Amino acid sequence: MKLDPIRVENPIHPGTPDVNLANGIWIELKALAKYPVKPSYLLRLPWYTPQQRVWLYRRWRAGGRTYLLLEVVAAGDWLLFDGDVAAKIVGRGTVDRHRVNARTIVKDPADLESHLR
Q1: In what order do the strands lie in the sheet with 6-7?
Q2: What is the pLDDT of residue 30?
Q3: What is the pTM of this model?
């Protein structure tokens, strides 16, 4: 299936995710350049706004397919979270908690397509 990603900038509705796919999926993109080394370290994302959390959670609960994709630059990992999980956990827990609660972890974002269905 061709996903045909479209970058979205929406100043009218704060919290709208960064990318919309042809199959109706919305993805919020975040990157973490500095990765805590110890699994017990708290992972913080101060640029992940309350509006983004609410948007992902509300749309997920309504039956939409929303995700947050977190690039962990130093580790070379991409962590994909379901929208409801992303709203509650991402940026608010330990490194271990993030890894355990991710829908999937891949080394190449091209490998995500099968997890976005």
Answers
A1: 6-7, 19-20, 26-32, 66-72, 77-82, 104-106
A2: 94
A3: 0.90
